[in-house]
From TrEMBL:
Keywords: Chaperone, Cytoplasm. Its main location: cytoplasm. Transmembrane segments: none annotated. Involved in the biogenesis of TorA. Acts on TorA before the insertion of the molybdenum cofactor and, as a result, probably favors a conformation of the apoenzyme that is competent for acquiring the cofactor. It comes from Photobacterium iliopiscarium. This is Chaperone protein TorD. It holds the Pfam family Nitrate_red_del.
């Protein structure tokens, strides 16, 4: 049981890490960690899984390439803004409404559904992150919290119900638009750092889905 709880904690940490990556520009302190031994060890561990080896290798290559930029933090911040804080015509906006909504506008039905889902599990959005509820960072943060909520259940039936909720969330919410978002990142991100990150996230979500199914 303790191994199962620890494994779930690792899953949650990965979702939270990816949430932070798409929530804001990386700082100098963040980049120092990305080029350090702990991140190398972390990514090496992920890459030991066959399904993640190629996307992890690509992301590590993107980190190495980024380190060679003359002003890495400013240039990556510009990439972030150009992709995620611009317009649908020039960027890859990180909102589900832009890909599976009906109006092509922010705060469409996916945002409303996400807000209701969070309320149903009594999981609150971080107050300092004032974005529509279908922002990728919010959805990933929610998934991490949903995993930990499952760990806190007292009975096998309750834990299984939360696992099924996680599977449903990946299937109907994340994978409903993440492939489209990843494709847009690959088309729009000329440098490739965030495209590689999105590709790794997509691969991890697909792998996590298999875990929840029991494959």
């Amino acid at each position: 049981m303790q191994e199962f709880i620890a494994f779930n904690e690792q899953r949650a940490e990965i979702y939270w890490w990816m949430s932070s990556l798409f929530a804001r520009e990386l700082s100098d302190a963040d980049l120092h960690e990305y080029h350090g031994g702990e991140m190398y060890t972390f990514l090496s561990g992920l890459g030991m899984t066959e399904e993640l080896k190629a996307p992890v290798d690509n992301f590590r290559a993107a980190i190495t390439k980024s380190n060679a930029r003359s002003d890495e933090q400013l240039e990556l911040a510009a990439d972030f803004c150009g992709l995620f804080l611009s317009t649908p015509k020039s960027g890859a906006l990180p909102y589900a409404s832009m890909y599976v909504g009906k109006t092509g506008l922010l705060n469409d039905k996916p945002a409303q559904e996400m807000h209701e889902l969070m309320a149903s599990f009594d999981i609150a959005q971080r107050k300092e992150f004032n974005e529509p509820a279908d922002h990728l960072a919010i959805e990933l943060d929610f998934m991490g919290n949903l995993i930990i909520l499952g760990n806190q259940q007292q009975t096998e039936e309750q834990r299984e119900a939360l696992m099924q909720s996680q599977l449903s969330f990946i299937n109907t919410i994340l994978l409903n638009w993440l492939p489209l978002f990843t494709k847009e990142c690959q088309l729009r991100d000329q440098f490739g750092f965030y495209a590689a990150a999105a590709n790794l996230l997509l691969a991890f979500c697909e792998l996590d889905k298999k875990f929840l199914i029991g494959e």
